[in-house]
Amino acid sequence: MGAPIIDFKDVQGVILRGYRVKFARHFILSITDTQATARLLQSLINGDAGLPQVTTALRREVRPASFLNVSLTSAGLSAMGVSDDDLKTFDASFQQGASSDAIATIIGDVGSSAPQNWIGGLGDGQQVHMLISLWVRESTDVMDSITAKLNDAFEGAVKVLLVQDANALPDDKIHFGYRDGIAQPTVIGMPPNNNIPDDQPPVATGEFLLGYKNQIGGTYRVSPSQLSTNSSYAAFRILEQDVAGYEDLLKSFSEQSELDTEMVAAKICGRWRNGNPLTLAPTQQGSPLPSEEINNFTYVKPPAETDDTLGLTCPIGSHIRRNNPRNGAVVGTDSTHHRIIRRAMPYGPVYDPKKPDDGDRGLVGYFVNASIHNQFEFLTGQWNLESDFVKSATAPGGEPEGNAVFNISGEDVFLGVNEDESSSFTFAHDGKNGANNTNATGFGRTIITRGSVYCFFPSITGLSYLASLPTQ
Ligand code: HEM
Predict the structure, then answer these.
(1) Cα separations in angstroms, 431 against 121, 229, 304, 381, 435
(2) What average pLDDT does the segment 220-226 reach?
(3) DSSP designation for 133
(4) What local confidence, expressed as pLDDT, does residue 399 receive?
């Protein structure tokens, strides 16, 4: 069967297109008047009343100066008039919402990351209804002028709970100094990823859009049909990063492992700070690899010289390997069932080690998928928080060289709920049952959650349906 034809003009752009912008502004809103909100949505669909039009995934010859997308929470859909019976057909985790105790516990939003510590009242999920995100390519003037128009349009319709800005850092870097935005899934039905190709299997359209076949041959759908095909879900996350704390962690790991701090940084992430993957640049970071190479690798690749089943080069517990084990053997299914599209950007000023501060900086944006439960939440709650998901596997040399299951410990250094007394990160070496491994220990969290919203991006058809509901 051929690739499905995606109706790009019905799909919100953020799901399938990377906007590559300098600035973003996320408005997190509570609906105060449904009729007025319906008019606001209609104006955004049409791009009238002085407001920008909702950006679709349709490719354009000329890139616009700005992009806008709209999503709603379960409470927001309910406020707009979606019935309880219909809401029950939505993703189970979406229905509960990111701030519910059950979800927060599953994904590690506990302690300092717990909903009661979130900003903007996001911890009270019932009042969080809608997110409008604006991305601007170049100019803060464009951002300011659209913001003024939006603020006028919000009057009498919605209350602004939080405005969260984001700003790109030079060279696509994020705080902690790594280059980001390299690896994304290739979605069936989309043109091949010409910017940064890889040799990963393309992922079924239905993993990112409702109404299309997913990896197991099923189709995620919701009721009513207007909200189903071409819609998607995302986890919106505000993740604060403690840069000074991370640099201290690197020093401590360096002392414990006798590796230099840059190599430690590469081992934790799986990529050097310039983006080169350890798999392709095992001993030193070197110059940035060309885009056709930088994401073109797998971990299990016999013969012995190229194979890294055991994670001796790229640790099995590194961030990129936990979040996409590629062809590494995992318990249950394989990585193609848990891919996500990342649409996040840094926020806050660059950390200057010469003028240390504990300012507010981190990463904010959407982690897009057709099943929050099976994709974002699975990655966050299982592969990032556990170390027993790796399947027994030996290198081409057999058992004496070691087994993958012994070469991972603890939780993801970035996303884990790491506590001084229990944290652990494995630097693997040849040897049966991990005999020669070094485990770095005694580290805490350097990334905490400051806010989280599970949202639903309706198709354009779905937005029109929602805009019509209050008058029915
Ligand atoms: C502040 C928090 C985070 C930091 C500092 C961070 C850092 C990074 C970096 C440096 C990369 C490599 C660049 C690239 O491959 O494009 C990466 C890749 C990735 N991250 Fe994160 N990340 C964060 C949050 C998350 C979250 C919340 C998730 C979702 C569970 C996630 C999932 C992934 C995935 C799926 C990849 C690509 C893996 C691959 O396909 O090889 N990250 N991250």
Answers:
(1) 51, 51, 15, 30, 5
(2) 98
(3) E
(4) 82
Helix axes 34-46, 460-468, angle to 10 degrees: 150
Q: What is the structure's pLDDT at 334?
A: 87
Q: Is residue 364 part of a domain?
A: no
My answer on whether omega of the bond before 224 falls inside 30° of 0, hence cis, is yes
Find the domain containing 402 and state its range: 241-337+376-450
* pLDDT of amino acid 400: 79
- Average pLDDT value over all residues in the chain: 96
If asked whether residues 47 and 91 sit together in one domain, one would say: yes
Query: In the numeric block, which tokens belong to residue 251?
Result: 């020093």
Under 8 Å between Cβ of 413 and 250 = no
Average pLDDT on 218-246 reads 98
User: Which atom of ligand 1 sits closest to the CA of residue 239?
Assistant: 1
**74's torsion region: left (phi>0), alpha (psi -120 to 50) or beta?**
alpha
pTM value surpassing 0.85: yes
Predicted local confidence at residue 332, as pLDDT: 87
Q: Are 233 and 266 within one domain? A: no
Specify whether 405 is located in the same domain as 300: yes
Question: What are the backbone dihedrals phi and psi of residue 256, each rounded to the nearest 5 degrees, phi first?
Answer: -70, -30
Report whether pLDDT(298) > 70. Answer: yes
Q: Is the pLDDT of residue 217 over 70?
A: yes
- Per-residue pLDDT averaged across 203-211, rounded? 97
381 in a domain, yes or no?
Answer: yes
Any ligand 1 atom below 6 A from CB of 415: yes
How many domains are contained in the chain?
2
235 plus 249 within the same structural domain: no
CB of 235 within 6 A of ligand 1: the answer is: no
Question: Does any domain span residue 81?
Answer: yes
Ligand 1 binding pocket mutation candidate from 320, 361, 383, 446 (most atoms within 8 A of CB): 320
Residue nearest to atom 14 of ligand 1 (CA): 182
Ligand 1 atom 19: residue of nearest CA: 320
Are residues 228 and 274 located together in one domain of the fold?
no
Report the alpha-carbon distance of residue 384 to residue 266 in Å, rounded. 17
Residue 320 CA, ligand 1 centroid: distance in Å: 6
Nearest residue to 261 via CA among 270, 271, 269, 249? 249
Residue 75 lies in a domain: yes
- Phi and psi (nearest 5°) for 51? -100, 150
Give the Å distance between the CA of 414 and the centre of ligand 1.
9
What are the structure tokens assigned to 72, written together?
Answer: 């709603």
- Relative to the CA of 271, which ligand 1 atom is closest? 12
> Quick one: 212 and 268 in the same domain?
no
Mean pLDDT computed over 318-322 = 98
> What percent of the chain clears pLDDT 90, i.e. is strictly above it?
90
State the closest ligand 1 atom to the C-alpha of 384, by its place in the atom list counted from 1. Answer: 30
